[in-house]
Amino acid sequence: MSMLEHDLVVIGGGVSGVTAAAYAQRAGRKVVLLEAGDRLGGCCHTWHPVDGFWLELGAHTAYNSYGSLLALNPDAGYGNLIPRAKVGYHFVKDGHTESPFARVGFLEAALRLPIGLGRKKAGLDVETWFTGLLGPGNWRRLLAPAFAAVLSQPAGPYPAEWLFKRKDRVKAAPRKFTHAGGLQGWLTELAGGLDVRLGQRVDGLAVETEGVRLRLAEAELHAREVAIAAPLDVAAGLLGSVLPDLAARLGATVMAEIETYAVVVPAAMVELPPVAGLIGADDAYYSAVSRDYLAHPQWRGFAFHFKPGRLDAEGKRAKIAEVLGCRTADFAYETEKINRLPALTPTSVGLARELRAGLAGTPVRLVGNYLNGLSLGDAAVYAAKGDSE
Ligand SMILES: Cc1cc2nc3c(=O)[nH]c(=O)nc-3n(C[C@H](O)[C@H](O)[C@H](O)COP(=O)(O)OP(=O)(O)OC[C@H]3O[C@@H](n4cnc5c(N)ncnc54)[C@H](O)[C@@H]3O)c2cc1C
User: Fold this and answer.
1) What residue numbers bound the domain in which 220 lies?
2) 103 C-alpha vs ligand 1 centroid, how far in Å?
3) Of 16, 71, 104, 389, which cross-links 379 as Cys (Cβ 3.0–4.6 Å)?
4) Lowest-pLDDT range of 131-135, 161-165, 170-174, 363-367
């Protein structure tokens, strides 16, 4: 019998990997988490440009419906979580903010609602279901840009059954919250006690008679079991040798790119009133997410999530200054990053089921934001489930 160097290896240190590793460790498994990059978090990426101020470059809001994550929270009283101040999302029109309500076509909605509400979501995309619910005018003016802001990509093709799910709430936790270290800080806290190894990119894996062999740049590892928690395209590549047909279908899913440009500006320089964020209808950005939910006396920060290929860096800076009502020279700190998310469709739902069935009985498990929905809570629910589910 060959030596099994590791019991369970988790590939990827985003919310899916951290959750999968933490639950397995709780269940008594000996876990190692390998992360390719130099930090934990993945899409939870909290930027710290200046002492005492941070800004989210990716995920920004957690809810008390994220039960699988909250069950891992080190403080059962949730004193480490910070409720978000009540600021709202707005559209921008002619240089002014506009409430989403101003875009609701009430008559159209009233005529549609009684028929639309009863329709099943299974198999339908978001555009079809919500157009049926509230009408094409409401879809175009309000829902398409608002959902694109939520999903950071065109929302129409997304599976309707994965957009809003009925979920239990953990009443003791704040309804909407962040953490003193931002969401990356929270995830790092949840990963406390795990054996995390940064800078360890897994390039390939092969199932053997006993366990799995993993190929890294400068090493080979052997594990009894592997949980792949890397982004969809990487996962599809790693699965190629395990389930070639399903891996090819998974790999055909497009990855949506989001060109994120973030700025920190002295609060006194910004004209825009406090907002949770802006929805960029008919504009070059999906959303501009602010830090106003956790106000700071000196700084305001905004992460603009731009549509791919629309503007170069100077164009983005000019757009941001125009929207904020300041000058580009007022930007005290700025940074850029490419975020990537799977562009899910109704076929993703069935594919997730087939992947789960195909991997049953193998030493390989998949966890990720493409198996149950994009939110942190959705990724965590699946990662928290045992291998048998
Ligand atoms: C701009 C933006 C805003 C969002 N806002 C919210 C929000 O407010 N609330 C919410 O709930 N959700 C939000 N989301 C969605 C959510 O953040 C993501 O779906 C979720 O964090 C994905 O987690 P994950 O662990 O599945 O994948 P990822 O976060 O992508 O993590 C995958 C990890 O695997 C690592 N990796 C890649 N390849 C390898 C390899 N070969 N070997 C080892 N490691 C590898 C990567 O470096 C990465 O750390 C947002 C997403 C984006 C992009």
Assistant:
1) 6-40+191-254+343-384
2) 32
3) 16
4) 161-165
